[in-house]
Amino acid sequence: MSDEVNPATTDADSAEARRVRDLVGRRLPEVVLTGADGQSVAVAAPGAWSVLYLFPGAYAPGLNTYPAGWADIPGARGCTLESATYADRYPKFRDAGARVRGCGG
Question: What does 3-20 look like in DSSP terms, one character per residue?
């Protein structure tokens, strides 16, 4: 992996890229979330790199299906460029020893 830190979907000198670079070296406090299987999952592990991908919910909690016509909106079902980029880079994260955790609402 490159030592360069830059979000995949923005210009290197954008405000978003600067905010991402400001996160380098910061530590996440202990966070334990409930996984899809109901088990507790520690987001970060001591001595290991962790990549936390957050994808906000795109529709009201408790709905079992998307609203009518939702799939006709590009990216609305969660297949955004950011999501695809994380999926494409997962093998590189894994090979570098990073644990990847995703959280959607």
Answer: S----TTS-TTSHHHHHH
pLDDT digit string, tens, across residues 89-102: 889 999 998 888 87
Write out the two tokens for 96: 């570098």
Q: Are 49 and 98 in contact (CB under 8 A)?
A: yes
> Which of 31, 21, 85 has the alpha carbon at shortest distance from 53?
85
Tens digit of each residue's pLDDT (9 = 90 or more) over 6-53: 556 678 788 888 887 888 888 778 888 888 788 998 888 777 888 887
φ, ψ dihedrals at 89, nearest 5°:
-90, -5
* Spans of all domains in the chain: 15-104
Q: How far is CA 21 from the centre of its chain?
A: 16
Q: Are 92 and 1 in contact (CB under 8 A)?
A: yes
Taking a C-beta distance cutoff of 8 angstroms, is the pair 7, 20 a contact?
A: yes
Residue 46: what residue type? P
Are the C-beta atoms of residues 5 and 65 closer than 8 Å to each other?
no
